[in-house]
Design goal:
By secondary structure, the protein is an alpha+beta fold. Helix content is 54%, strand content 14%. A hairpin with a 5-residue loop joins strand 6 and strand 7. The termini are far apart.
Length: 425
């Protein structure tokens, strides 16, 4: 080596430093890759992504190859640096070279390339993967020996070295991913995705039309009155009962009899023959199951029943879809008809309005794990039927009872949430 000039030795040393930086940076870049994005790029046929995915399927071999190459290069750097120092200043040159080498390797071969790789993982990892695949083929015998000892040691501690690095995301992790992708996904699409993820958490109790609000056709009424109701009813489908909603006998699709109804060419028997059997679903059923049930049964309506078989409400496919796509309205700034904004910043709401709808419309945080309506929430808090003008603080929101009817709160006024200091006062 004495035959080589100092300039040549420094050039070799520089090349070794580049190789060391390559090994260090590429290791960080490959391990920092988003595995789901990588899988997507591999499916599109991108060569570097296919190679990177192949390497990451056996991370022990990849790490073994990188560490083998990096350690060999660093050892050569140390030997060559010591020799150059000796050539320049004798024994003291070795000490100086060692001191300088610690700083140079730390900055230029470790910290800088790894930081750069962490910031631009994809740009560095994919080209590196194309180099590593053939390199792993050549160096496989050495890597296999190294991994044999390393994996045997890990197995002694109960570590599964064959574990799949690409694990499935949990429900909450998916929500976090969707929430964090606000720049890549429009707010409308983001809310739709979150709505789909929430289908398992939301139940029919949260979206159903309460029993007392169901509009039904009673066959025991006078036939002329029934025909008049049929002409003026604003729905295309309607439940039909005898006496009360508790005795539903079917659902009527008005379009099938529209012409006959207009010309009064229909009898009670014709109407009964056009009915479709009612479909029931237990209360507490989540919306994901409901969606599949309606799809399987080719239904648009379902009656919600309790454990005793008593009807509790009616849920429609439209209500379910609104949980995903939002309210079917042309003006996104408008509130539901049961929520009325006031000039002083408060909101007057109907007592039967669902808490979930209030939270979504007004961006509030009223708890909805108990009663489903604002009336039920107030009654639960006060444990009595309140008088108009009574105020109660629920989850930090002052709520005033505006009007009551019989044994229920008919309307209430919700004020903005108080600060912690105001609540303490």
């Amino acid at each position: 080596m004495d035959d080589y000039s100092i300039g040549t030795l420094f050039l070799v040393l520089f090349i070794l430093f580049i190789l060391s930086a390559f090994f260090s940076g590429s290791e960080t870049a490959l391990m920092a890759l988003d595995r789901y994005r990588l899988r997507h790029m591999a499916h599109t046929g991108r060569r570097g992504a296919i190679q990177a995915q192949k390497l990451l399927e056996t991370p022990d071999r990849l790490i073994g190859l990188i560490l083998l190459g990096n350690n060999v290069v660093n050892i050569l750097i140390a030997q060559l640096s010591a020799y150059i120092g000796y050539r320049l200043h004798g024994d003291i040159g070795i000490a100086v070279a060692t001191f300088i080498l610690i700083f140079v390797i730390l900055i230029f071969a470790e910290l800088t390339p790894k930081t750069l790789a962490a910031l631009h993982a994809e740009k560095l990892a994919l080209p590196a993967a194309i180099i590593y695949v053939p390199l792993l083929t050549v160096a496989y015998p050495f890597v296999w020996v190294v991994n044999l000892f390393a994996n045997s040691l890990l197995r002694l501690f109960g570590v599964d070295v064959q574990g799949n690095p690409l694990t499935s995301l949990s429900h909450e992790e998916l929500r976090t991913v969707v929430n964090d992708e606000s720049t890549a996904i429009s707010s409308e699409h983001q809310q739709m995705l979150l709505g789909v993820l929430d289908l398992e958490k939301v139940t029919v109790d949260d979206i159903m039309i309460p029993k007392h609000e169901i509009v039904a056709l009673d066959l025991e009424n006078d036939w002329e009155e029934t025909l008049k109701q049929l002409k003026n009813i604003p729905y295309t489908r309607i439940p039909v009962c005898r006496g009360s909603i508790d005795n539903v006998i079917g659902f009527l699709h008005l379009r099938k009899l529209l012409i006959n109804i207009i010309h009064k060419e229909i009898e009670r028997e014709d109407l009964e023959q056009a009915l479709r059997e009612p479909y029931f679903i237990p209360e507490g059923t989540n919306l994901k199951k409901l969606l599949f049930e309606l799809q399987d049964k080719k239904r648009r309506f379902s009656l919600v029943v309790d454990e005793f078989g008593d009807i509790q409400g009616l849920v429609t496919l439209e209500d379910l879809l609104e949980e995903i796509v939002g309210e079917f309205t042309n003006d996104p700034a408008t509130y539901d008809v049961e929520i009325h904004p006031q000039q002083d910043g408060t909101f007057v709401v109907d007592g039967g309005t669902h808490i979930r709808d209030i939270n979504k419309a007004l961006n509030l945080k009223l708890h909805d794990d108990g009663p489903k309506t604002i009336n039920g929430l107030i009654l639960e808090q006060m444990e009595s039927i309140p008088q108009p003008g009574t105020s109660v603080l629920i989850d930090g929101y002052p709520i005033e009872v505006v009007q009551t009817h019989k044994n229920a709160v008919r309307t209430a006024k919700i004020s903005p949430r108080l600060s912690r200091r105001e609540e303490a006062v």
